[in-house]
């Protein structure tokens, strides 16, 4: 899963990137509203963490522009302490949730997980597909209770498929969601990760749909 952080305070931005990456997400970062707006409008993020007080273009304006352009991805806004007007303005502009500074990283991560789950129609912190379970809190996967040993990229591919069970996901889509913007992407490596996952998962769980991509088979 791929997250955009739009935060102008460099120390906080670095802490956000480190914390979000520590649970298996890939992260891009922008330090002003103009760059953040462009990245959020042109890249396929799974969620965005958006500060309200940004230089060049404030966060409320950025969010309004995304929503006006039809961008429906989950957005978590960061507001200053006790500024209830910012919270109201953010929600009215289309924010899905808000967090007041200062905050605990664990709470931000929990809210991000919830936003991403809800966007995919999932209610529980555990995603289940047949014998396969993925715990979004611990970033661990298991088959019939036995933990799987996965590399970071294998986990990202599996997590994206688990958030979209039964859907056909193309190689290009997987590539866009498992690599950060500045990474040298190669969609051919997705085949390698899929092949490795198939060796660790029950047969038939990941189905190849010829010419279209891959599908996590819910019937398993």
UniProtKB/TrEMBL annotation:
One GO term under biological process is: regulation of DNA-templated transcription
Q: Which residues form the Response regulatory domain?
A: 2-116
User: What positions does the domain OmpR/PhoB-type occupy?
Assistant: 124-218
Gene3D superfamilies on file: 3.40.50.2300, 6.10.250.690, Winged helix-like DNA-binding domain superfamily/Winged helix DNA-binding domain
Listed SMART domains: REC (SM00448), Trans_reg_C (SM00862)
Q: Which residues bind DNA?
A: 124-218
Name of the molecule in the record: Transcriptional regulatory protein QseB
What is the organism field in this record?
A: Candidatus Propionivibrio aalborgensis
């Amino acid at each position: 899963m791929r997250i955009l952080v739009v935060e102008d305070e460099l120390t906080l931005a670095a802490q956000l990137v480190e914390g979000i990456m520590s649970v298996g997400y890939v992260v891009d970062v922008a330090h002003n509203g103009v760059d953040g707006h462009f990245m959020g409008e042109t890249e396929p993020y799974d969620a965005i963490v958006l500060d309200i007080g940004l230089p060049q273009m404030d966060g409320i304006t950025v969010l309004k522009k995304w929503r006006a352009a039809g961008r429906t991805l989950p957005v978590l806004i960061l507001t200053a302490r006790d500024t209830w007007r910012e919270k109201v303005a953010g929600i009215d502009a289309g924010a899905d949730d808000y967090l007041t500074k200062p905050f605990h990283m664990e709470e931000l991560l929990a809210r991000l997980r919830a936003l991403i789950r809800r966007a995919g129609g999932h209610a529980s912190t555990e995603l289940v597909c047949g014998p396969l379970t993925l715990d979004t809190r611990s970033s661990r996967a298991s088959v019939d209770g036995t933990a799987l040993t996965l590399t970071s990229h294998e986990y990202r591919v599996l997590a994206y498929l688990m958030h979209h069970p039964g859907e056909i996901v193309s190689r290009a889509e997987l590539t866009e969601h498992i690599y950060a913007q500045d990474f040298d992407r190669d969609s051919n490596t997705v085949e390698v990760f899929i092949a490795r996952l198939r060796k660790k998962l029950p047969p038939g769980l990941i189905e190849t749909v010829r010419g279209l991509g891959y599908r996590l088979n819910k019937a398993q």
